Each structure stands twice: as structure tokens, then as C-alpha cells.
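Late entry, iron/sulfur cluster complex.
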Amino acid sequence: MLHSLQCPPASQQRGDDREVRVRVEADWDACESNAVCAGLVPSVFEIDDDDNLQILDGDIPADLEQQVRHAVSSCPKMALRIVE
Ligand code: SF4
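Prediction complete; structure with ligand written out below:
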């Protein structure tokens, strides 16, 4: 099931003043928790103690956008997507 996360307006500011341009969503049913994304961007993706993927913060700051896009395209299960 694809969990829909609310998409913020373009250029929304985070509390820490880092510009947010995109969000990342996970299809939890497709994810096999193999940690590829967590290895690429550990500040956004994490595998918890129960071997489930956790998205630590779906609001992606501009300085992490390219890394997150790389993680999304690297997911072998195509379980991640960017919401512009
Ligand atoms: S790379 Fe894909 S399958 Fe692996 S943990 Fe991340 S979302 Fe899940």
C-alpha cells in the first residue's frame, strides 16, 4: 500500500531554515528492507530494530535532494518515489 504523505508547497521552509522542495514516499508493501536507501542517505532512511524501513523525515531539504533521488532510483524494489 502506498502511504500518501502530504506534499508541501514549493520552497516551503523547514524549522531549521533548510529549503524543502520535494518529499519522498515509500510503498511499504513493496519495500523488502534491504537497506540500500539507508546506506545511501542514512539521515533520511533507516532500518529499525524490527527490520522495517523508517523514513526519518519525508521533507527533503534541497541539499539532500540529489542524494535522495539517487536512493529512489537505486531501490531494487522501486518502493520509493519523489513527490514534487
Ligand atoms: S532500497 Fe527500497 S527496498 Fe530497500 S529498504 Fe529502501 S525502500 Fe526498501
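The chain has a mean pLDDT of 86. Will revisit in the morning.
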